[in-house]
Structures are given as structure tokens and as C-alpha cells.
Amino acid sequence: MPRKKDTDDINIEMDADESESDDGGNNKRTNNRRQGAGRGGARGRGRGKKPASEDEDEDDEDEAPKGRRGANKKKPVKKRGGRNAKDDDDSEDEAPKKGRKGAANKKKGGKAQDSDDDDSDAGKGKKGKRGGKKGGKDEEDSKGKKGDAKGKDKGKDKDNDNDKKKKKKKDDSSDSDSNTNSEEEESMSEGEMARLMEEVEEKKKLIATIRNKPWRMKRRLVHLKEAQEFVDKFEGALGKGKGRKWYAYKVMMKKKWIKFSRDFENFRTACIPWERKIKEVESHFGSSVASYFIFLRWMYGMNLVLFGFTFGLVVIPEVLMGLPYGSIPRKTVPRVDQHSAQDYSVLMDFQGYCKYSIMFYGYYNNQRTIGLLKFRLPLSYLMVGIGTFGYSLMVVIRTMAKNADVGGGDGDEGEFTFAWKMFTSWDYLIGNSETADNKYASITTSFKESIVDEQENQKDENIHLRRFLRVLANLMIVCSLGGSGYLIYFVVKRSQEFANRDDLSWYEKNELELIMSLLGLVCPPLFETIAELEDYHPRIALKWQLGRIFALFLGNLYTFLFALFDEVNNKLEQEGSIRNASLWAMKEYYANYTLFLNDSSLTPPPMPPADVIRGPCWETAVGIEFVKLTVSDIQVSYLTILIGDFARAVIVRFLNYCWCWDLEAGFPSYGEFDISGNVLGLVFNQGMIWMGAFYAPGLVGINVLRLLSSMYYQCWAVMATNVPHERVFKASKSNNFYMGLLLLILFLSLLPVVYTIMTLPPSFDCGPFSGKPKMFDVIMETIDLDLPAFLGTLFSYAANPGLIIPAVLLMVLAIYYLNSVSEAYQNANMELKKKMQMARDEEKNRRNNTDSTNQVMKDLEDLLPRGSLMAPPEPEKPPEPESRLTKTKPGSAGKGVNLQKDVALASPNPNARGPVNRSPGPRGAGPGQGPGRGQGPGPGRGRGRGPPPR
Amino acid sequence: MGNKQTIFTAQQLDSYQDCTYFTRKEILRLFDRYRDLAPQLVPLDYTCQPDVKLPYELIGSMPELKDNPFRQRIAEVFSDDGEGNMTLDDFLDMFSVLSEMAPRDLKAYYAFKIYDFNNDDFLCKSDLEKTLNKLTRNELTEDEVRMVCEKVIDESDLDNDGRLSLEDFQTMIVRAPDFLSTFHIRI
Questions:
Q1: CA separation for the pair B35, B41 (Å, rounded)
Q2: Local structure of A532: helix, strand or coil
């Protein structure tokens, strides 16, 4: 009975039902009744006088034809005396269409007698109604079940929860037998309503979480249907008076909202691209390679949003509403350059027309508002620049938090080494036999390794040599890092010299980008070779490798940045002189103008915009550097794939026929997908985008294109040219690792941009902030001019250091506090862990030497097994068939026998709540305990006895 | 799949969406996959809930499962009859549990079922040995297998009964860093 077993851990109650659901109904039911009767008042809310009440029931049902039918059917269900309440409900279930009243009637009939203990007589009438209501509800509840036993089984455990409630209600509905039919819901009492509401809420919760239940689909569907019907029916009945309409409205809107959100969700998932592609890669290469592509897709999504911001709020407005090309100097190619402005080589360097295009900072005008809409472009430019960082930070951190939440694993290495290896090492994503073979091999080796580790634990043969080698390796790596940094600095310096000359070769022009890309290409393999010396475990080695490459890239980037700052400072000086010169010229011109024409109105000099003297516009220069860097990075990485992977694969594949050794198995072989390198490349690329986006809004667009194309290109390349990793080691928690890198890069790229925005003066003749002493003055200007005055004063207070310093202090304190709290938790955690370990060890020891030293414990031990053995003898199977036998026999065969049987029946499933109710002993404990509480005694006993042998 | 609407009623689709972690499109796609396994067996109309079961041989030959050492167990655990023969409901169930969205606890529960070869609700030594042999294709020696199994039980058996109960398994697996990423089949 594998199926039954499936369910019984989790929904223990149900399987009792299941086992019995089909045995002969009638007799059983009556039996139960009898028992009920026998048991009498103890059952309390139960049916002291069951038989009588039942008869009444029947009568009622006669009146309603449907009810009748139902009654017959229903009988099978009530096998469980213990669940009288249930029985009642069931009986009520039957009269579905007849309406609540019929049901109510029945119920009351059932209940009238037994509720001698009705204490709350106030508003009995109401309660009666309530009972009626309830009945109706139950009926609703189990509508789905009607007729089919399975449905019922399923319904049951849900019902259990309600059982208690119902019972209570029943008690209440003492004498309302007569007057039930008259009034309906309108006079529902508060308590009733609250209860109903609660139940509806419960059902709703069930609907929302039904997918989390480890049930069979069929069962879930039935439950879902019931719950939905129930909610449908009773939701509207809630609330009263004016409130009711409002409630109904609310409910309706909620439903609509749910529907809408589901549709939206459907739409959203339909929009997630590349599911298929990633799946394909995943099944060929396992989850680690796929994680790169998922990361790539995530980056694409984020960049798409950034792209939307930049283009929607900056580029498009400027194109649509700003002045057209050629209208003012900053939007015109200077005359000197015009002859070559369209040359391919010039355009490829992002000079000429490219430089004076929408892509770069310099093109934007400093008009405060543009177009009919009075769009404040400079303000929007600054806001988008800052918003880019804000948004990215938010997204990265949110994703990290989510991953951390899901990842959950605070896995202490070593605690569960073998268990984890055994249960989580198979990658269910693998759907390719070659990968599967590799996976098998790698799992085997990893097991063997752990076994060896376990056996020897440490095998330090020559620790001095190892140490020496490691120090040496690190020395070499530090040297190469420093070397690469210096190289870049040198090249940047040289490029500044070159900038003043015209006779440059192609190499000299692109030296910087070439060198940087080459360094990125050469150094990682170099590091890998050096790392061989160290002889670390591959996972640790991977971490070192990543860290070193990261340091390399970071060093390069920052060297580049510093060099760039030098250049910017040069440009600033240059600009200063040009500015003075042009101002002077302007003054001269105006002086002459007014002198000669005696006209003090200021018209600009009649000079074509192409001829105006202009400053170097350092912002555009920085933007160009970043764009060039990005583009060359794209080129290099694509070429690497083409040559390093594709050409290699082609050679290996086709030259293999005429070669002296096996190329596929031997030296070159096929490439493996380099996850860490690719991830780092992506992360650094993103860093450059973040840094450059402020000075070159077009850069975001380029990046989106790059990510898009590389998704397809790399997917193709990996499928066509790479082989699955031979040693698949999962970069575990990799997602957050990547995200952590990204966050670090984001922070590092934030620094220079914010620094330039806050300190450097913008160029005087280009860009949206020209003419202002600082870029952020545009905000001050907006505050002064567009917002009410008091806001301005408010801001000036807020910007007061006297306020900022305490705020910062407060934050620091908060961080300190939270930090210490988390540390305390961690300590507590460790303590608990230790305690658990100790307890386990103790237990183990105790088991091993049965001669416990502790006399008391010994006594206890003697006692315990007996106690726990008490149950088993009766429980096991035998009784069941017997009981079944009698049950099928028509007519009730003596109470005593049946009672026994029931007890026996109960015992195989101590978890079901039945036994508690039914067996003579527990009866005294109060039936209130019974329903829904079955689990209480269940596990304890179950453990003692071991599993019921089925 | 021109007229998708005729396969399921809108209501059926809604309930399936409530009961699984799939969106409507995915459910339809899964139905296609299911049907592709045996086009002659599976009707194109599920509105009246036909009683169709695909045998294990077909289910196990899906590319998603065919290289999985535990495919038989997966099919058995998720099938109604315990033999690996699956109805569409079972099929949806299986991929819902194995989907990305399913919560850890649910996955852990079913993982436990899958590794519990003899269906006794405990992972005992024989289960572990079978698991290990499937994972390594019998390439470990007897001794090694025994040792690994002992280690596993030693590590994660919290109540010291010499076998792993569901709770033991859950406490262990919940903290495993790659459980979620590997116990997962994309459809």
C-alpha cells in the first residue's frame, strides 16, 4: 500500500478514514450510534441520545427527496462514532438544494436532545439559527464529497478542524428545533459571524496554500473545489446591514484582483525570455554553467530597466524637444574636424559625428526646460544618473536578500559532508548522457576523496615545501598584479602624450584598450598555472583564482581611472584658459557692438556654431574612454570565443583524422566553459557601464545590445564547442557569490562618479550642467525656483552638518547594535548546536554501554519500554478484518463487540483522532480533545512502537 | 495546438494553476509534453477527465528523466498506483514539485520519498546503499559503501534509531546549500 504510506506522515488523520471509508456503511453507522449512546454524556457535545435524534434526522430527510438519497449515501461515511459531529455534518450534507433550513432542521433534530448542558441560553433562537447556518455550511463543505467516498476522506481532515466548532454550535442549538426554519441569516450574531469569517478565511488560506501540500493532485482538486465553493457561498453572507454591501463589494474586487494578478503573472512569466535555451544548456552542462546564463539573463533584465530610464527620461526628450543638431556649438562638429568627421576610422574611435551625438554628455543643452512640456532636462539628467545607482543598488541587494532567504543553507562544512554528498550531489537537471557520465564519475571520485580524507584526515607530507611554494606563488602573483597595474598606468600616460599628436598609427591610438584586454586575457591563465604550485583543493583553488582575477581587474580599472583623472585635470586647466579667452573675446565683441551700434541689446555674435572656440569638454572625453573600453571588451571577448573555443573545436574535430595523436582526448581537446572568467567579465563590464553611463547615456544602450547578442552567441558557442566539465564542482551558493561581486563593483564604481559629480566643476560650454559651478547645483536651482519657499528652507536645514552628523552617528550606532545582536544570535546558535551534539553523543554512549551508571535512568528505561509496548499487542492488523466482518453483517451485533472492534480498529492508527474519542479510557478526558488533536498522542506512541507494519 | 481552450475548461486550468506552481502556459506545455509521449493514447480533450495512464516506460524515456539514476523512483513516488504509471495529474504533480517555485519543505518531503526505496518511511541502510550505488554506478567497493552509509547515518540520525526519519532528513537537507538548485527539473 505504498500510496497510503505516502500520505500518512503528513496527514495522519486521513488514512484512518481511508482505510475504512469503504466498509459497509449502514451497520457501522448504527454501531457508532449505539456507541455514542452508550457513551452518553461523556461525549458531551456528542449525541447523548443518538438513536432517537437520528430517527428524527431520517424523518427530516424524508421530506426532501434529495436529502433522502443523500442520506443513504451518507451512511457509509459515518463509520466513526468518535466523530459524531462529523456524522451530523454528513447527514446534513445530504440535503443540498433543499437549502439550509432542511439541514438546520436535521441538525437540530440531532442535537436537540443531547444538549442538555446548554449553558448559554441567551438568544437561543439566534443560536438555533446559527446551528442551521452551520449545517448549511457543512453541507456546502462536503458537497464535493457527496457520493464519492474518496472525496469524503479527503474532506475529512479539513472538517476535523471545524469539528470542534461545529460541536459547540450544536450544543448551543438546544431547543431551537421548532423555530429554526423561521429566521435566517439576518439575525446572525456577532460570534457566529466571526466564526464564519474565520472559517472563510481558513478556506481561503487553504486555497492559497494548497499547492504546498504533499497531496495527490486529485485530492488537491477536490479540496480546492470544496473550499472554493464554500468561500463563494459564504463570503457574500458575511457582513450585515450596510456593511454587507461593502463587504460584498470588497469580496468582488478581491476576486477580480486575484484574477487580474494571475493573468498578469501568466503574462509576466510568458515574458521571461530564453527559458528554453537555458534549459538546453542546463541539461547538457548541469546547473553550474546554467547559473552563468541565468545571471546573464538577470543582468539583461536590470540593464533593460536602466536603459528604459536613460532613454525615456534623457535621450528621447532631448531628441524630440531639444534643439536639433547644428543649432548650437555643442551640437556641431567643429570646422577643423569636419572634413574627417565621417571617416570610418574616426567614427570607430567615437570622434567626429559620434562625439557630437546624443550618445555623449556634451551634446545635451543646459536649457532649464525644453519643449512644450517644460521638461527639466538637466534635472532629469542628474536624477537619472543618480537613479541608475539607486536602482541598481536596490535590485542587487534585494536579489541577494532573496537568494539568502531561499538559500537558507548556513551549511557548516563538515557537519553533513557525506549526507549532503549522497542526497544533493545528483543534479536533476542533467538530461544528457555525456554529462551524466561525467557526473557519475565526479560523484564517485568525490566520494572516494572524502573517504580517503576521512581515513587519513591529514596527510601533511612536507609542509615546509608546501608553504614555501605557496608563498612563492603568492609573491609571483602579487608581482604580476603590480606589473599589470604599472603597465596600464604607463600606457595611459603615453596616450595622453599621443593625444597631442596627429601622426598616430592604429596601434598607438588603441594601445590602452588593447593592453587592458590583453592583460585580461593573459593573466588569468597565468594565475591558474601559478596556482598549480599551491596544490589547494579545487574548490578553494577556485576561490583563490576568482579573488586574484578580481584583484587584477579591479587594479586595472582603478589604475585606468586614476590616469583618467590626471587627464581630466589637464583638461580642466586647458578649459580654464579657453574659457577666459572666449569670455574675453565675447566682452570685446559686446563692447565693440554697443560702441558702434549704440544698441545695448545683446545679440550673440554672428558666427556659425561650427567656428566657435570651445573647451575640451572633459565629460565627453571620459565618456568616450568608457565606451571605447566597453566596445573593445566586447570585441575581445567575442574573438576569444571564436578563436579559443570555436577554432579550437574545429581543429580538434577535423584535424583529428590526420594527426599523430588523438586530439580529442589528448592535448588540445575541447574547451570547457569557463564559468568564473565569464562571470567576472560580465561583472566588470557592468562596472564600466555604471561608471560610464553618466558621461555617455548611449553606453547603456550598447550594453543592452551586448548582453542580448552574447546570450545567443554564448549559448550557441557553449552548445557547439564546449564539453561538460570533467570535474563538476558546484560553486555553491554561487548566485549570491556573483551578486556579492556585483555589489562590490557597484560600490567601487559609484565612488568615482559621485566624486566627480560632487567636486569637479562641469565644463563651461557643453553638457546639461554647463555654466554652473557644480553639477548638483541644478537641484538647488529647482528647489529655489520651482518649489515653495518653505521647502527650500527645509532642505537647507536638512543639509546642515549639525543635522547630518547626528544622523550618520545614529546610523553607525544602529549598525553596531544590529551587528552585536546578530552576533549574539550566532553565539546562541552555536551553543544550541553544541548542546544538541552533546545530547546526541550522550545518547549514543548510553546505547553503547547498556549498563547505565545512573540507577534512576535504569529504572526509567525498564519502565519505558513496557509503557510503550502496551499499545502494540492489540494494535496490529488482526482486529481489523474481524471488525470488518462484523460490520458487513447486517444488523448491529451487540454493542460490546463493536466497541471492542472499534478500539482495535483505532490502534493501528494511533495518529488518527478516532481512538481518543472512542476508546473507553480517553473518553473521560473530554471529547473536546478528540478532533483535530489526534496528532498529539500520535507521534509519541508511534515512535515507541515503530512504524505500523503494513 | 491551435485551439488550446478545448483541452481543458477554463475552470480546470484555474484549478490546476491553484494546485501547482505553473502558469497556464506551462500547464499547456506540460500537457503537450505528456501527450507527445503517446499521442495515440492521450486524448486531446481533457474536459471530461478521461482515465488515461502512461506506462513507466514512456515516462522514464523523457529526456528530462532518462539520465537520472532515480527516474524509476521518481515515477513511482509520484504515480498514483506506485508502479510508475502516470496520469496527467500525476505528471503535473511531479513537475510541480520539481519546479523552481516549489518550497524547500515540499521538495524535501518528496526527496525523502524518492530515496526511500522500500517505502517504509525511513531511510535505512539498504535504502542508503541503493542510493549510493545508483549515484556511483556500483563503482565503490562494499567496504566503502558500508562506510559511507554509516557516516551518513552517523551524521544525520538525530534520534539514534539507526535510520533516518523524515525529520532527520529534513533537518539535514534544509541546510544543504545546493539542494534547491539540484533537486529541480526545468520544463
A1: 8
A2: helix
A281 to chain B: closest CA residue: B186
Q: Which of A266, A433, A733 sits opposite B23 (nearest CB)?
A: A266
Computed from CA positions of residues B21, B23, B24, B29, in that sequence, does the dihedral angle turn out positive or negative?
negative
Q: For residue range A120-134, list pLDDT tens digits in order.
A: 443 344 444 444 444
DSSP A493-516: HHHHHHHT-S---HHHHTHHHHHH
Give backbone dihedrals phi and psi of B81, rounded to 5 degrees, phi first.
Answer: -95, 0
DSSP3 helix / strand / coil % (chain A, rounded to 5): 75, 0, 25
Radius of gyration of chain A (CA): 40
The DSSP H or E segment spanning A483 is: helix A463-499
Contact B68 A418 (CB under 8 A): no
Distance set, CA A733 to CA A38, A326, A673, A738 (Å): 62, 54, 19, 9
A148, A423, A675: best to mutate for the B interface, most B CBs within 10 A: A423
Contacts of residue A225 in chain B, CB cutoff 8 Å? 15
CA–CA dist B127, B130 (Å, integer)? 5
Contacts B20 to A, Cβ<8 Å: 211
End-to-end CA distance of chain A: 7
Render pLDDT for A687-744 as a digit per residue (tens, 0 to 9): 989 999 999 999 999 999 999 999 999 999 988 888 877 655 554 445 677 788 889 8
| Interatomic CA distance for residues B74 and B66, integer angstroms | 11
**B164 pairs with which residues across the strands?**
B123
The DSSP bridge partners found for residue A375 are: A370
* CA–CA separation, A357 and A380 (whole Å): 19
CA–CA gap between residue A630 and residue A636 (Å, rounded): 10
pTM: 0.65
Nearest to B73 by CA among B34, B125, B130: B130
Query: A420 vs B119: CB contact, 8 Å cut-off?
Result: no
The Cα–Cα gap between A471 and B2 comes to 67
Find all residues with CB under 8 Å of A658, minimum gap 6, and list them.
Answer: none
Q: Under a CB-based contact definition with an 8 Å cutoff, are residues A140 and A230 in contact?
A: yes
Q: Answer yes or no: do B184 and A428 touch at CB < 8 A.
A: yes
Of B103, B135, B147, the CB nearest to A422: B135
Strand (E) or helix (H) holding A672: strand A671-672
ipTM over 0.85: yes
pLDDT tens digits along A488-511:
888 877 877 776 776 767 777 777
Q: Which residue of A has its CA nearest to B175?
A: A409
Which grid cell sits at A252?
468582488
Residue A820 confidence (pLDDT): 96
Question: Rounded to whole angstroms, how far apart are CA atoms A599 and A594?
Answer: 5
CA neighbor of A678 nearest in space, from A644, A624, A637, A618: A637
Cα–Cα distance for residue pair A587/A351, rounded to 1 Å: 31
Q: Compute the 3-state secondary structure of chain B and give helix, strand, coil in percent, each to the nearest 5.
A: 55, 0, 45
